[in-house]
């Protein structure tokens, strides 16, 4: 059987665009001689639709899209992800479903059984679990049709008490189809392959897997649709970060080598897609950012230019009396390397006016973090003024290390409509810079070699306020990504005083992160949708 896997980039709630894209893919697959075309999980709505699912009109439009798609299924079968209504009063009102459509009508609707409620997933908020397990039939072959998480219960420590495949295999299907919305993190493609291969090894039948591609706000989908034969051999691996209709013949398969991609190449491609899709799907074209001469603003400038085009990037230097001469020259060199025009506004006159205005109330109190934050907030105000006046979206340049410990100023350097590197630790920022500079120097070497500094007081260095980044990032990773508590981290060899200090800083600054713009997710645990911590909690503070 010739089958098409439609790895496409959909847009949440954009029914016209999504439905048109699906129908065009159906027509293309039919012309190529495919008997079946398969689309990802919740393709009609895009993933995740979140509380849009609570609107009856939204579900009505889902059903309207199904009708339009069915009209194009006379000569080709279609599997497409879409919500469906629960016909009984008990339980949630919706299912997360795979619709099997052929000969102009809906043949069957298969409901997702295993509903993830961890990290960025919150499906049981909206959906009822499917409890009826049956294969679909096409051209004399039985197909075990599953939806994403339905195949993820084969691990040694299963999250769920039952397995859909254990029921479906009783019907002796010819192969498995899995439609998915599996988000990117830089380790997840390997984990995904391991899970799918484990299913094949356990049930001894081929498996076809189709995934979303594209970014939905902070969540990035990398594609990488897959096919395995009955022996567990990889016979196809789709492209990553790219739309493609993949054609496979279940009768003629031969093994292929697994794609090997370096961590920072994956991260680089993911961030480009995250920026590009955020802007295109929101209808934005241009970006603005503050250019400090430091590594964080430098890498965001490069990423934005690569994603949107150099002509659409508006960097602004905002030096103060504490800014070093090399910060200005390094920024100018970066923009010259990227062929980007850079603007410059001195903030010292405004800063002096602030100090003069506040003097009657401040009295003789010494210079402290207050004056540092004033500078950051002046910069934030000016950048937002330019954003308002000319329309470009302000990009936030804070990294994960800074966001974790609160090393940033609310309504200052934490301003922005999108946090580009908020899921990259400082040490990872440098590694990504090295990747960008692998062929030629784009980010000036002086930016990478000088000591990091906010330049908000004379001779300031990040190390005055923070532990060394190599130590800080290791402890943060164990706490945030690995979810280790302080005793476990200390037991692993880290200094007790240092661990307690860092974890206390993380938890004291949760209120800042709650006010942050969306953070592009590239790790297994990013700040934002997938990490929910109380602001007023006492634990570790």
Overall description:
- 47% of the residues are buried.
- With 541 residues, the protein is an alpha/beta fold.
- The protein folds into 2 domains: 2-253, 4-Layer Sandwich (Nitrilase/N-carbamoyl-D-aminoacid amidohydrolase), CATH 3.60.110.10; 267-462, HUPs (Rossmann fold), CATH 3.40.50.620.
- It is built from 16 helices and 19 strands.
- It starts with a strand and ends in a 28-residue tail after the last helix.
- The longest helix is centred in the last third of the chain and has 22 residues, at 369-390.
Q: Give the CATH architecture of the largest domain.
A: 4-Layer Sandwich
Order of strands in the sheet with the most strands?
A: 5-4-3-2-1-14
Main sheet summary: 6 strands, mixed
Write the CATH homologous superfamily of the largest domain: Carbon-nitrogen hydrolase
Domains counted in the coordinates: how many? 2
Q: Could you tell me the mean pLDDT?
A: 95
Low-confidence stretches: none
| Beta-strand residue fraction | 15-25%
Radius of gyration: 26 Å
Q: State the end-to-end CA separation.
A: 60 Å
